[in-house]
Amino acid sequence: MTARLEVIVGPMFSGKTELLIAKLHRAQYARKRVRIIKPAHDTRTQGFIASRAVRPDGTTEVTDTLSAVMVRTEEDFERVAGPGDFDVLAVDEAQFFPLDEPLRDSLGWFGRALRRLLRERRASHLRIIVAGLDMDFAEEPFGPIPGLMAIADSVEKLTGVCMICGSDAGYISQRVIPGDKQLVVGDAGEYQVRCRSCYAPR
Q: What is the CATH number of domain 4-160?
């Protein structure tokens, strides 16, 4: 009996949230108490996580949703996770939780809070499942995800379908709108899944 951290990564539209939701449905069937959080920075879906399918015309369609608590700060996280009244803690779009400025470590406050929770409940059946982008549009590590991958018990790295050549080896979420700011929330109109060959470095 030991607490576990599972991390799901990959580019946009690779099925990360779909897999996360499937794992959560299974946990609910097993009568586990599930708590879901997501960063308040993600304004696309407030109050829930959603798996989306990309249609051939480039638009997206929501295929499944689950309610989530929006978290902005470490204090928000402590209010949600502090009581410990859950068996499974799920986090979607975790790349949006910021690292420290100046940089202190690869985890940021959010990753350190998860590590602390794992230590506090290490002799339990606690299961933490985190989904997010491991790289940003510029091929750089994204937020706390790489640090969480390092301390995880398991990592599932998913691929997508390249929106240029159609290869089943999506590598990165290519930003197709101007700008160099890392945190730009977008969807199919702002990003494309690209394989390594079709990715165009800026």
A: 3.40.50.300
Encoded tokens for 13: 């539209």
- Confirm if 88 and 129 have CB atoms less than 8 A apart: yes
Contact between residue 65 and residue 44 where contact means Cβ atoms under 8 Å apart: no
Domain boundaries, the chain: 4-160
Q: What is the pLDDT of residue 75?
A: 97
Which candidate, 110, 30, 123, places its Cα nearest to that of 78?
Answer: 110
d(CA 50, CA 17): 7
**Residues designated as active site:** 93
* pLDDT tens per residue, range 89-140: 999 999 999 999 999 999 999 999 999 999 999 999 999 999 999 998 888 8
In angstroms, the Cα distances linking 103 to 20, 83, 96, 106 are 29, 29, 16, 8
Alpha-carbon span 153 to 88, nearest angstrom = 15
Q: Is the pLDDT of residue 43 over 60?
A: yes
Cβ–Cβ < 8 Å for 94, 130:
yes
Spatial contact of 195 and 171, defined as CB atoms under 8 Å apart: yes
The pTM is what? 0.90
Residue type present at position 134: D
A 10 A CB-CB count for 31 gives 7
CA dihedral (31, 13, 9, 94) in degrees, to 10, reads -70
Tell me the pLDDT tens digit for each residue of 16-26.
999 999 999 99
